[in-house]
Design goal:
Shape: elongated
Number of helices: 1
Radius of gyration: 36 Å
Number of strands: 50
Helix content: under 10%
Distance between the termini: 101 Å
Structural class: mainly beta
Strand content: 25-35%
């Protein structure tokens, strides 16, 4: 015994040591003895301190390996307890209803937090669950209304029903990386939810409503390195944002629809921006973003206006900044930053410079950027993919690098002011509609060294496929397709001023919308087996067709 009369403790001896059956004293601060009758204290029995309402603190000796069910239940004044570092088991409801308990450190030796262990411990503010714990029992922390920080160890794989029910609305919950398929409903009402990753913590959920938001740089000494998918999606009230200083990645749609966001500083540590991460961070009253492809009053748009991508940024996901309707200025510091498809589509960018080491311009990258007046494409770019510059209504000229080989479908279509574009010697592939609906485009120049395409009467023809690709909109009168042409590509005569067009016997195929929006009045087709694709005369009027009966029938069927 250590200075306490025996009558304060009811205990029993066994082969392995002594078990405390019941504390019968009235002390507020209790330091349990190491042994009874020479045998070490190894266990606290069920309900050993149950309903000791005056108990404020208790120190348990390191020899104790188990604490029984309800051991400290309803100790309503208990504020602190020191658990042994080698504690092997903790009973159900061990600290339930200890409404003054403020802080508990669970030893690394525990394998579970049992059922109802901290039920309605309403003063508990911080808990670190050890690395050996694999499960949280039902109601383990239920009703801990002041719990501000709860970190689950790396081996937690199971969370019981209502284990996290009724917690503080300011709770910061940290999940282990290995806990898969976590149902966010289990943490309903918590303020912040993080998951551990190799690099640091990933923010998975945020419940605040600030207009000026400063995200945590670290949580309990662990750096915040990622913002997860759609965490802040549609936070329309968010105006200013400070990201964590050690941030590495931003997830898909993380800030999509934050239409009031006006300030964004990306930290130099950032490496990845996910798909649609900031899509729609801009707005105009009553005007959906996609309407801007056909023009729009930029003065009526608000939202993010400028952006600097840091030097170490490796990739920007598909449509990451699409629909940021007020975004005018973009600076890309990295030479190797990969820009995903459509990542700056439908923005207000006026001048754009691609990363110096870019090899491709992805699909729809600047689609619908109606204010774009200047673009700088570096040497080394080999491909401009589908609709990359479609709808860039203010762009008058584009200088293509000598390295270019592929131009995708619709890549330079619907560009109202584009007057000239020159194809370098290496261009070997041009997709359908590449230059369609360009009313001001007078000439598509071709390098004399180019072996794949030729001009005839100003019209662009694919040598390998013997296909008519494009006809300049400004040419008038009659046009007879060259004898060696076997196909008319999609939208080849779009907006054409030719009133009479004759297709020779060798033309085997007429692509979709071939004459869309043209001024054609007479069309002659000679090959009775010509394949007619969808809507070749869409948006034309009163066209007289001279063609074999079978062809007329097919045109009627596809109209």
């Amino acid at each position: 015994m250590f200075g306490k009369p025996k009558q304060e403790y009811k205990y029993e001896l066994n082969d392995g040591g002594a078990s405390l059956l019941r504390y019968q004293g009235k002390e507020e601060n209790v330091v349990l003895p190491d042994s009874f009758e020479g045998k070490p204290l190894t266990a606290l029995a069920d309900n050993a301190f149950y309903d000791c309402k005056k108990l404020v603190s208790v120190t348990i000796p390191e020899s104790v390996a188990s604490v029984g069910n309800g051991c400290f239940k309803n100790c309503v004044s208990l504020k602190s307890v020191r658990l042994p570092e080698k504690l092997a088991s903790l009973g159900d409801y061990a600290f339930a209803l200890c409404k003054e308990l403020e802080d508990v450190s669970l030893p690394e030796t525990l394998t579970n937090v049992p059922q109802g262990c901290f039920l309605k411990c309403k003063s508990l503010t911080r808990v670190n669950v050890g690395g050996s714990v694999t499960s949280l029992g039902e109601e383990a922390f239920s009703g801990c209304t002041q719990l501000k920080y709860l970190s689950l160890g790396e081996n937690v794989r199971e969370i019981g029903e209502n284990a996290l029910k009724g917690l503080s609305d300011k709770l910061c919950l940290v999940l282990p990386e290995g806990l898969k398929n976590f149902d966010k409903k289990l943490a309903e009402g918590c303020d912040r939810l993080y998951r551990r990753r190799k690099e640091g913590l990933e923010l998975m959920l945020y419940a605040g409503h600030e207009t000026d938001l400063i995200l945590d740089d670290e949580v309990n000494g662990e750096p915040v390195t990622a913002v997860g998918d759609r965490v802040f999606a549609m936070f329309a009230y968010l105006e200013k944002l400070k990201l964590p200083k050690n941030l590495i990645s931003i997830g898909d749609g993380a800030f999509a629809g934050c239409s009031s966001l006006t300030e964004l500083l990306l930290p130099p540590t950032l490496r990845h921006i996910g798909r649609g991460a900031f899509a729609g961070c801009g707005q105009a009253e009553g005007v959906p973003g996609y309407v801007r492809m056909r023009g729009g009053d930029l003065a009526s748009y608000s939202g993010l206006t400028s952006l600097t991508l840091p030097e170490g940024l490796e990739d920007v996901g598909e449509k990451a900044f699409a629909g940021c309707a007020a975004l005018k200025n973009v600076e890309i510091k990295g030479k190797d930053t990969y820009l995903g498809a459509g990542c700056f589509s439908l923005t207000a960018i006026e001048e754009f410079t691609f990363p110096a080491h870019a090899a491709e311009i992805q699909s729809e990258l600047l689609r619908g950027c109606v204010n774009l007046k200047k673009v700088n494409i570096p040497s080394g770019v080999e491909s401009v993919w589908d609709r990359a510059f479609e709808g860039c209504a203010a762009l008058e000229s584009v200088e293509l690098p000598e390295s270019l080989e592929v131009i995708g479908e619709g890549a330079f279509s619907s560009m109202e002011k584009l007057k000239r574009i020159d194809l370098p010697a290496k261009v070997r592939q041009i997709g359908d509609e590449a230059f369609s609906f360009d009313p001001a485009l007078e000439t598509v120049g071709i390098s004399p060294e180019n072996e794949y395409f030729r001009l005839e009467d100003g019209c662009l023809i694919d040598r390998n496929e013997n296909a008519l690709i494009w006809v300049p909109a400004g040419k008038t009168g009659e046009f007879t397709v060259p004898d060696d042409v076997e196909a008319v590509r999609a939208c080849a005569f779009s907006l054409s001023a030719f009133t009479k067009v004759s297709l020779g016997q060798n033309v085997k195929k007429i692509g979709p919308w071939a004459f869309r929006g043209s001024e054609i009045k007479e069309l002659k087709i000679q090959n009775p087996d010509a394949v007619i694709e969808n809507g070749i005369l869409l948006d034309t009027e009163d066209v007289e067709i001279d063609a074999p009966e079978a062809v007329l029938k097919r045109i009627g069927e596809e109209a």
